[in-house]
Amino acid sequence: MNAIAWISIAPISTTVKEVYGVDNFQVNMVSLIFFILFLPSMLLATVVFDKFDLRTGLVVGAILQGIGASLKYFINHGFWIVLVGQGFIGVAQPFFLDSPALVATYWFEDSMREISITFGTNFNTIGIAIGFILPTLFVNSDITADHDSIKAQVANSLLVQAIIAVVLMILTIFSFQNKPKVPPSSNATVERDDAMCKSYWKLITN
């Protein structure tokens, strides 16, 4: 879902610029904000995963994503709302990018760990592909059509994304467990010791 939200405006950028009266810079910022926020939000995600646990990190990411996707639905009240919403989703990104290795460690046997990490990381690529297709299913590419009608189509496209994000947020909050009751391997029982935080501190201070 995070990757879908990242690229959600790019496939309909020409239409969005015409209908909402925005320029290339504003449209490009919808995607670029992810890169701008990546480093600080990656550090935040690392601290949360290290200080707390997998479940807490994913819940934080899911809540940020749910809020951001919901805000983007109100695009017709001002394009700036999309940028604010995208900011929330951009901060959420590292929480999902960091999680496949932890999910593999806690939930899979040693023999399945590499496969699970591969699947987990490739879901991001699949999300990008879906993100390129989804908006075009809702939005008319004919910029000479009625602008109010096109704005409603854009909002509906973002509404679908918001619904998906909120459903995933609720499922994560109420259903996702940090670890299975029976550890799948001996590695899953090893307690984390803030290793990444300590590594970053050593990197900064040396």
Secondary structure blueprint with pairings:
Layout: H1 2-6, H2 13-20, H3 24-51, H4 54-72, H5 79-97, H6 99-107, H7 113-138, H8 147-175, H9 195-205
Question: Main traits of this protein?
Answer:
206 residues, mainly alpha, single chain, Growth Hormone, Chain: A
**Alpha plus pi helix count:** 9
Quickly name the level 1 CATH class: Mainly Alpha
Largest sheet geometry: none
Q: Which term fits the overall shape?
A: elongated
CATH topology: Growth Hormone, Chain: A
Number of domains: 1
Low-confidence stretches: none
User: What is the CATH H-level superfamily?
Assistant: MFS general substrate transporter like domains
Mean pLDDT: 88
Per DSSP, what share of the residues sits in E-state strands of 2 or more residues?
under 5%
Could you give the order of the helices and strands? HHHHHHHHH
Multimeric organization: single chain
Q: Kindly report how far apart the N and C termini lie.
A: 38 Å
Q: What is the C-alpha radius of gyration, as a whole number of Å?
A: 19 Å
What's the β-strand tally? 0
Main structural class: mainly alpha
How much helicity do the residues have?
A: over 70%
